[in-house]
Amino acid sequence: MRSLLLLLGLIVLAMPPAFAGEKKPIPVTIRLHGEGNEREGESFVTQIELLNPSKKIFIRKVPVLNERDIKAFLPFPGRDGMIGAYFVLDPHGADKLLQFTTESRGQIATVMVNGRVAAAMRVETPVKDGIFLVPGGILPSEVVRLEQEFPVIGREADFGKKKPKPEKEKKTPAQ
Known about the structure:
The chain is α+β, with helices and mostly antiparallel strands. The protein has helices at residues 2-14, 91-103, 140-149, and strands spanning 30-34, 45-50, 55-60, 70-77, 83-89, 108-113, 116-122, 131-138.
């Protein structure tokens, strides 16, 4: 009987946190991929299709940047009717962005948001300020989730604070 209780206790402890009661919001993935070459092999590159201009290119499977490199962001209306954003990177991410933009001049950099192509840009100059620009391709629902994960630039002090609930109007007795 004791061994059965011990086994039952171990099973309960090993249960995934999904049964913990509180659901975490689905995270937003933001990845910057460099242009690859078909000769690098399918283990290292994958083919994607760009929409404007309509073109097939190869990108490296391992991203240069991801959402773990982001410290804060600032959304803005994008030119494609969707939303663009500036992302402030941590020092490690800023170094990776500088190295990538220095080495990859003239190549295409592709931004993937939640696994879909959000933007593709030609690398022209090194980015030295640690700010990663996504000119468009972000959905409004993704911005809402980003606001839950990262502070908005200029409002970092408010990040993580619970918003006060609106007070209900008090009813006064009719006279």
